[in-house]
Amino acid sequence: MFRLIDALRLLRGAAHLDQLLRVSQEQLLAFGWRADAKAAVLLARTNTGRWLQVVAESPNLGRPDVAEQLQLPAFGDAGFQASLTLEPGESLTELWLQGHRQPLELRDVRGLPYIGVVDQLLRLCQAGQTPLERAPALFQAGLGRALQGLAVPLKPQEHWQGLIHRRKHFGVNASTAEITVVIPLYRRWDFMLGHVAAFCQDPWFQEQQVRLLYVVDDPTIETAVMGWCRGHLTDELLDVTVISLQSNSGFALACNSGILAAETPKICLLNSDVLPIHSDWLQPLLRTLQSVPEAMVAPLLLTDEGQIQHAGMVVQPLGIGDLPACVHSLKGLDPAQLKALSPDGLPYDVDLLSGAALMFERHRFLEIGGFHPVFGRGDFEDLELSLRWRRSGGLLKLVPSARLTHLERQSITHEQDPLTQWRGLLNAWQAKQLCQEIE
């Protein structure tokens, strides 16, 4: 008993700084743990002689590793995150945590691959060990703003162009085409076989009115994709361009890069797991866009069983903090039930559109900045784009006579591991911050 008491006395006030990251010229993020119930207090001295004190107000981070190392279960919730704000030109010269001097091992994450930095920060939040309901407050305490700043250099079109590693053309040259179908590829690329089989039977592709552009957002499949295209598309009566990105950049930037690389005035953006049902799906989309050029239009997406997968989205509460969720409110219904919304089968206005299948004027997409890169691997970028499109004076229309099958989330894991859950919450938080229309 006395040994335990002595050990607790020695541990009282013990603390350790695990990571100190520079996320901008003025902001640092600190992650670590302290062995008491008090708030973590960081005291720093800058090169200008200014003293800076930060009290970590955000929720504790789960740290079962600390509890196991110290063999004291009470320390399983001892982690913290803190944000330090410097003045222009300042740097740290000394740093204390709970009165203990800490080594200044500062790591600059600016310029590193964005989606890798997102995952690193979420792991430092102890995703899987920290309860999900604490996530919004942790994002609010500095991490969310840090990622918004890190995403700023990814927004210019020059950056999108710089992501392209290779560009190869296969098949014919459809010089008079008005539409480019842009399809990003990640992990799975075998859906290309279904696309090519369907497009080869489509009169618009046969008559060279449409081009096809694939964006390989996964270096691990680049060799296989290029090899298959050389063997099967070189003599095909399709106009196919394949661009590969230097590294996995995430859905938003892959789409932005592909749309920038396209050369036609109109774009049809498709997920890789969206497949035509019939060959007359493009015509009603184009007619709608021609009649309402300021619109972003979308087809009716069906499951492989013929039920509605997407016919417009709405925002509902997620149930964690005040974060939003994108809900396909008509999902699972029979397509015939759409007559309640559109008795004559004509296009109708919706609140939000899924990014799985969209058609729009290329110049309008580029003018408003494309998909926001802050969303990283994906989710909620379509919600934010939909609201920004409407904010700029555009309309969102669902075209029920244009129908495709969406196999849904075939290129990502269906397992909701902790990191995937935290990514989704982070993107929901970012959408809430960027879209004031969300209540």
Summarize this structure as a short list of keywords or feature phrases.
elongated, disordered N terminus, single chain, alpha+beta, Spore Coat Polysaccharide Biosynthesis Protein SpsA, Chain A
Structure description:
The structure is a single chain. The protein has 439 residues and is of the alpha+beta class. It contains 13 helices and 21 strands. The chain has a six-stranded mixed β-sheet, sandwiched between helices. Strands 14, 15, 16, 19 and 21 form a five-stranded mixed β-sheet that branches. The protein has a four-stranded mixed β-sheet with strand order 5-2-1-8, covered by helices on one side. The longest helix is centred in the N-terminal third of the chain and has 17 residues. The termini are far apart.
How do the strands and helices of this protein lay out in sequence?
Blueprint: H1 2-11, E1 15-22, E2 27-34, E3 41-46, E4 51-55, H2 64-70, E5 79-85, E6 92-97, E7 100-101, E8 106-108, H3 114-124, H4 135-151, H5 157-162, E9 164-171, E10 179-185, H6 191-199, H7 203-206, E11 210-216, H8 219-232, E12 239-245, H9 251-261, E13 266-270, E14 274-276, H10 282-291, E15 295-302, E16 308-310, E17 314-317, E18 324-327, E19 348-349, E20 357-361, H11 362-367, H12 381-391, E21 395-406, H13 418-434
Parallel strand pairs: 1-8, 10-11, 10-13, 11-12, 15-21
Antiparallel strand pairs: 1-2, 2-5, 3-4, 3-6, 6-7, 9-12, 13-20, 14-21, 15-16, 17-18, 19-21
